[in-house]
Write a structure and sequence with these properties.
By secondary structure, the protein is of the alpha/beta class. It has one domain (8-190): Alpha-Beta Complex (2-enoyl-CoA Hydratase, Chain A, domain 1), CATH 3.90.226.10. Helices cover 54% and strands 15% of the residues. The protein is built from eleven helices and nine strands. The strands form two sheets. Strands 1-2-3-4-6-9 form a six-stranded mixed β-sheet, sandwiched between helices. A three-stranded mixed β-sheet has the order 5-7-8. Strand 2 (16-21), helix 1 and strand 3 form a beta-alpha-beta unit. The radius of gyration is 17 Å and the shape is globular. The N and C termini lie far apart (36 Å).
Length: 256
């Protein structure tokens, strides 16, 4: 619909915009094109006067496996591309937080790394009972600056956020619901339908009141962004070409 990238499909379903991460054969890991499109799409939604709600999901069996090693390798070696990657990460975060319409994540499968951030930055999360969520930035030598460090403390508190970020633990659907990471858990085959039904309900709400309520609630996230986002992104950018990160990626690639 918005003609951004083949790796990010956007379709209109009445007042609902369905945004699908579209690299199913790669578990929707983020290509360069997908990452750039994710940075742009929220401005397009904001300017779309017919949009009243968004459903964000992944095609195939994963929500998103996060980053991919080809992009990581280029980020390690190319300073200009590294800067672009961080600029886009900032736009993804601020775009989702400030998107005027509600975003419902349909987590149909694993939501890892960037996928975890996309789910946590959504307003309401419906998760498949077979899915899991995890932020393993640290396990590949990266700072979790693009969402996890910002959002997790607000959802689960500092102690639990540190556990999840430091250890990169996989959180199964039922545990994610218990922790407040997601709003509901449904059978996998129902997750997108349930999210679409919920988005349709939201689309029928008084539009201005819903937008202003989202803005008011997200003042907590805005304060967190003003206090820590730039420091987190700067730290992540530096970790993107650290010897630790390079060595860990090389080790993982050697296993393939």
């Amino acid at each position: 619909m918005y003609d951004l990238s083949p790796d990010l499909a956007v379709t209109a379903h009445g007042p609902v915009r369905l945004i699908e991460l579209n690299r199913p054969d790669q578990l929707n890991s983020a290509s360069e094109g997908m990452h750039t499109a994710l940075a742009e799409v929220w401005d397009r939604v904001a300017a779309d006067h017919g949009a009243r709600a968004v459903v964000l999901t992944g095609r195939g069996r994963a929500f998103s496996a996060g980053g991919n090693f080809e992009v990581m390798r280029r980020v390690q070696r190319d300073e200009a591309f590294r800067h672009q990657n961080v600029v886009e990460a900032r736009r993804i975060i601020t775009g989702m937080v400030r998107c005027p319409v509600p975003v419902v994540a349909a987590v149909n499968g694993p939501a890892v790394g960037l996928g975890c951030s996309l789910a946590l930055l959504s307003d309401i999360v419906v998760m498949a009972d077979s899915a899991h969520i995890a932020d393993p930035h640290l396990q590949v030598g990266l700072v979790a600056g693009d969402g996890g460090a910002l959002v997790l403390p607000l959802i689960v508190g500092l102690a639990r956020a540190k556990e999840l970020l430091f250890l990169g633990r996989k959180v199964k659907a039922q545990d994610a619901e218990h922790l407040g990471l997601v709003n509901s858990v449904v059978p996998r085959e129902q997750v997108v339908d349930e999210a679409m039904k919920l988005a349709q309900r939201l689309a029928e709400m008084p539009a201005q009141a819903l937008r202003d309520t989202k803005r008011a609630v997200n003042l907590h996230l805005e304060r967190a962004m003003s206090a820590g986002l730039e420091a987190a992104l700067t730290a992540e950018r530096e970790s993107m070409h650290s010897p630790e990160h390079v060595a860990l990626v090389d080790k993982l690639l050697a296993k393939d």
